[in-house]
Specification:
The chain has 113 residues and is of the alpha+beta class. The chain has 4 helices and 7 strands; from the N terminus they run βαββββββααα. It has one domain. It has a 4-stranded antiparallel sheet with strand order 1-6-5-2. The relative contact order is 0.22.
Length: 113
């Protein structure tokens, strides 16, 4: 981890598609998760490590990410108020994709570095 004292180490798993093999340590990502009926956008994190394995002929991965502990997530509805097109693209994303520069700029408004 680059900032051990300031950040936390989280993990998540992913299977299917190209994301498990394409995302490498050092890549930055945003997580969009559903909690019940609400969707949450998590602040930008950095991939620290990944562990790949194959299960039933599908590639799975466990990712370890470094993320700042304060104000980690915001409701997708708040993002929607800022940019409706952005929120729609994020909510409908069925697979992991790399955030475009436009998406990154909009989300950076919520988490100034």
């Amino acid at each position: 981890m680059a900032h051990r004292r300031q950040n936390e180490l989280h993990e998540f798993s992913w299977h299917g598609g190209r994301f498990p093999t394409e995302a490498k340590p050092g890549d930055e990502l945003f997580q969009i998760l559903r909690d019940g009926r609400s969707h949450w956008v998590y602040r930008k994190a950095v991939v620290v490590a990944r562990k790949l394995y194959v299960k039933r002929k599908r590639t799975h991965a466990i990712f370890y990410i470094e993320i700042a502990p304060n104000r980690q997530r915001i409701r997708l509805a708040v993002v929607r108020a800022v940019g409706r097109r952005l929120a729609k693209r994020l909510r409908k994303a069925a697979s992991a994709t790399r955030a475009s520069r436009a998406i990154e700029r909009v989300l950076a408004r919520f988490w100034p570095e």
